[in-house]
Structure formats: C-alpha cells, structure tokens
Specification:
158 residues, alpha/beta, three-stranded antiparallel beta sheet, 24% strand
C-alpha cells in the first residue's frame, strides 16, 4: 500500500481491523463493478457511498452495493424526508472532504446520518472506499455500521 489514507488512520485509531485493497486507475473514477473485478472481490460485497440532500437541506449518506441503484423514494422514507436528491458533483468535496469516486462513509468532515443497505447484514466482510480513488478497505460490516452510527434499510431499486 503506497500510503495510508485518513480512513485507514481512523480505523487504526479505533482499533478496527481492515484489509487494504489497491487497484490501478486513471484520473477518472471507475464504476464499482469494475473496481470489484480489479480487486478480485464479489461485487455484492463492494459498497458505494452516495451523498444526498433532503428537502430540509440536511445531508445524508447512503451506502449500497455497487451492483444496485439507490431508490430515491425509499431513501427519503428511510431518513424521514419528503424527498432526497444527489449532491451536485461540485459540492461533494466541500461537504465531505472527498472527491467523486473516492467518497468513503468513514471520516467525512462531519458524521452525517448514514443508512446502509439491508444486504450488508448478510455479509462477513464489506468493502468501501478508503477515501481516495484507487484504494478500498475491507472490514466487518458491524464495525462499519457502528463507526458511522448507521442504520439499516432497504433503500435500493428492485
């Protein structure tokens, strides 16, 4: 591993075991299914981090399998909002401290209300971004949920 990310440092500080994964990349983010292939992981265990804003202007984080699509109605219901919409790409860095494609549910500038897709409960390990493009971390789902003070809901499209 070339260098530790803030996500890795935070996991170590909290004494949470993790396995780092690196993959080759250019400047552009690649889709999660491609990332899963590059690191030899089951795409169902690789989760992407989506940041949305509710009708109330509050910011929410949703963590879902890379093979799935977020259902905006279910997501809004899970956080008790009338509606939610993806943050504009230009706002991601200011709000989270991360870049598009390198957004991790761990270590954002603030701990936003975080909802994990219900399939996370059936996994032995979950893989999420380590906070920069080209780096992922694999850890116990329970540890991720606890660290993000996350809740569980069915938030993906059928």
């Amino acid at each position: 591993m070339a260098e530790k990310t803030n996500v890795m440092r935070m996991l170590e500080q909290k004494k949470i075991a993790y396995i780092p994964h690196e993959y080759p990349h250019g400047d552009e983010a690649v889709d999660g299914v491609t990332v899963a292939g590059l690191i030899g992981a089951d795409p169902a265990a690789v989760f992407k981090t989506l940041v949305l804003r509710g009708a109330s202007k509050a910011v929410y984080v949703f963590v879902i399998p890379v093979v799935a699509e977020l259902d905006l109605k279910k997501a809004a219901k899970a956080v008790k909002e009338k509606s939610v919409a993806m943050l504009h790409v230009s706002e991601i860095n200011d709000i989270t401290g991360y870049v598009r494609g390198g957004c991790s549910p761990v270590g954002m500038k603030k701990l936003f209300p975080t909802t994990h897709h219900s399939s996370i409960e059936a996994l032995d390990a979950v893989i999420v971004s380590a906070g920069k493009i080209g780096c992922q971390v694999e850890l116990a789902p329970e540890a991720l949920i606890k660290l993000t003070r996350g809740r569980i809901a069915d938030i993906t499209a059928e």
